[in-house]
Amino acid sequence: MSDETTNGAPGGASGAQPAQPQPAAQPGVRLNILAQFTRDLSFENIVAQKGIGGEVSPEIQVQVSLDARKRQADHQYEVICKYRVTSQNSADQAKLFLCELDYAGVFHIEGVPEEQMHPFLMIECPRMLFPFVRRILSDVTRDGGFPPFNLDPIDFVALYRQEAARRAQSGAERPQGQPLS
Fold first, then answer.
1. How far apart are CA 114 and CA 110, in angstroms?
2. Coil vs helix vs strand at 134
3. What are the phi and psi torsion angles at 119 (to 5°)?
4. Which of 3, 88, 103, 140: CA 20 to 30 A from 47?
5. Helix 156-170 crosses helix 114-143 at what angle (to 10 degrees)?
């Protein structure tokens, strides 16, 4: 690596600063998505099954859960994002539709310290899968006869912190060195 002056010319010309020792390069994180796929998908159009009369004013609730596991191959992990989307009529609380999607990705990850692997798997990997999940949910609800459901962005950091706090309260926090579930 060479020192450069502000005009981009190599250092060493008169008036240039002497080269400063550079810190040792940190190995970078390497993340590749090897595969992604729908593990399970279910859509129930309750309106079509039972029929709902009168004014419909939908309320939508989304539940998200995440899971990760180490695969047999070195540096490979599977991350599963589970979404449950329910819509009900705000007037009478009648269910309109139910959609459940389990979407998974297989990742090759290197350069992440072991103590940071669990948060990395539960935050960064779902973040990379999110645009695909969003499209699937939109397509399924549209194809099911409803306006396309455009899932709002999810704060996976906040979701991870909430789950960590819940586990800490219940005493079920994953001990260091414990394999991923």
1. 10
2. helix
3. -60, -35
4. 103
5. 120
